[in-house]
Every structure is written in structure tokens, then in C-alpha cells.
Amino acid sequence: MKRAIAGAVLAGGQSRRFGRPKAFALHEGAPFFTWSVAALDPIADELYIVSHPSLVDEFRRQTDIPVLLDVERCRGCGPLAGLYTVMEQSRADWVFVLPCDMPYMRREVTERLASYIDPMFDAIVPLHGVRPEPLVALYHRRLRSVIAELLDAGERRMISLLDRARVRYVDAQQLAADETVWRNVNTEGEYR
Ligand SMILES: Nc1nc2c(ncn2[C@@H]2O[C@H](COP(=O)(O)OP(=O)(O)OP(=O)(O)O)[C@@H](O)[C@H]2O)c(=O)[nH]1
Ligand SMILES: [Mg+2]
């Protein structure tokens, strides 16, 4: 049975370290967020961008993909809020999240990670040695109530969600031969 996947580009952060909205910074001539969209598009049955009121107009100028705002009670509460918002919006079994600041990410990686989907698990997450990569991951919608509880308790860390889920960790080396794909841009220095 085919299991629907909603692709979600998380773009509701403040880019404080970067100094301007990093979703729109250019990599090889195209805005960062479009690289995440391109990596999700082949495997996603639906696509969403989850952002912040201050960025919505610019996203709508640049793309036709639906732009959601974090649900109000946890707006701006971090990536968990974005994940929760897509689970509220979509009926898809799985939500595949990507951040908006990983412009080297490639479809080969997302396709491979999605091939590990297994209904016995709640989340499918890459692992670098002992370090998980929770923002490049698949989450089953059955986690929605767990996420709601975390957010209501003021708990924003993705790792807290992993602690409460049955996680299928996938060795990052199985997903990409080239470590570059995991590069994430937080500062102007990393950008240059
Ligand atoms: N939807 C949503 N996405 C978020 C939120 N906070 C962060 N993100 C996204 O999660 C990803 C990782 O966050 P960070 O790297 O910390 O990005 P950021 O928060 O914009 O940057 P800093 O302000 O420098 O921490 C980025 O793609 C952010 O846009 C939020 O409250 N809601
Ligand atoms: Mg942040």
C-alpha cells in the first residue's frame, strides 16, 4: 500500500545568526528554500512551506507552493511547531521535513531515506555516528498528540520528540557518499 508523504520545508525561523531571511539567500543562483523543495518534490504527494507572517508575502511572490503559518498557539516555537502545523493541515501518513537552509541537499538522499519507511516506526532519522539529524527526517502522523504535549509543556527540542518516539535511525553514510549534502548555513560566514 502506498503511504502518502507530505513534504514540509521548515522556514519559520528568525535567521538571527544569518542577519536576513536565509530562505531567500541564493545558492547557485536559486533561493535556498527551492533546493529543499527540489529534494522533496520527487517523493512528496503534497508540499508545504511552513513559515512566519513576516515572510509569507515574499514566499508567495517566489513560489506557488502553499505557505502555512505555524498554528497560533505555538507560532515561532521552533521546528516542532512547523511539523505539528503540517500534521494538522495534511492527512498524509508521513511528514518529511527539511530545513530551508540546507541548499546542498539532494533528492537521492530524500529518496533513500523515504525507502526506509516502516510502519513499525514513528520516525525515520539519519544518524551521523551518534548525532541524529532530526530536521532531515520523516515523522508519522501518530506523533501529533506527542508533539502537542511537548509544545504545551514548552518543550521545543526535536530531540525530546525522538526520545518519545520509536525511531528508525539510518546511518548517514548509507544515504549520501558525499558529506556536503548535510551542510547547513546558519551564519553569513558559513554562507561565504
Ligand atoms: N515553521 C517553523 N520553522 C522554524 C521555526 N524556528 C526555526 N524554524 C526552521 O527550522 C530550521 C532550523 O532552524 P535554525 O537553523 O535555528 O534557523 P533560524 O531559527 O531561522 O535561525 P536562528 O535565528 O539563527 O536560530 C530552519 O529552516 C528554520 O527556518 C519555527 O518557529 N517555525
Ligand atoms: Mg533557530
Task: Kindly describe this structure.
The chain is an alpha/beta fold and 192 residues long. It has a single domain, classed as Spore Coat Polysaccharide Biosynthesis Protein SpsA, Chain A (Alpha-Beta Complex), CATH 3.90.550. The chain is built from eight helices and ten strands. It has helices spanning 32-40, 53-62, 79-89, 107-114, 144-152, 158-164, 172-175, 188-191, and strands at residues 5-11, 26-27, 30-31, 46-51, 67-69, 94-99, 123-128, 131-132, 137-140, 167-171. Strands 1, 4, 5, 6, 7, 8, 9 and 10 form an eight-stranded mixed β-sheet that branches. A two-stranded antiparallel sheet has the order 2-3. A hairpin with a 2-residue loop joins strand 7 (123-128) and strand 8. Helix 3 packs across helix 5 (144-152). The chain is globular. The chain binds guanosine-5'-triphosphate and magnesium ion (MG). Residues 10-18, 50, 70, 76-79, 81-82, 99-101, 135, 186 line the site of guanosine-5'-triphosphate. Guanosine-5'-triphosphate binds at residues 10-18, 50, 70, 76-79, 81-82, 99-101, 135, 186.
Categorize the overall geometry: globular
Number of strands: 10
Do you know the CATH architecture? Alpha-Beta Complex
CATH top level label: Alpha Beta
CATH superfamily descriptor: Spore Coat Polysaccharide Biosynthesis Protein SpsA, Chain A
Could you estimate the helical fraction of the residues in percent?
Answer: 25-40%
Number of helices: 8
Sequence of secondary-structure elements: EEEHEHEHEHEEEHHEHH
Major sheet summary line: 8 strands, mixed
Mean pLDDT: 96
Low-confidence stretches: none
GO molecular function: GTP binding; metal ion binding; molybdenum cofactor guanylyltransferase activity
Protein name: Probable molybdenum cofactor guanylyltransferase
Binding site for Mg(2+): 101
Pfam families: NTP_transf_3 (PF12804)
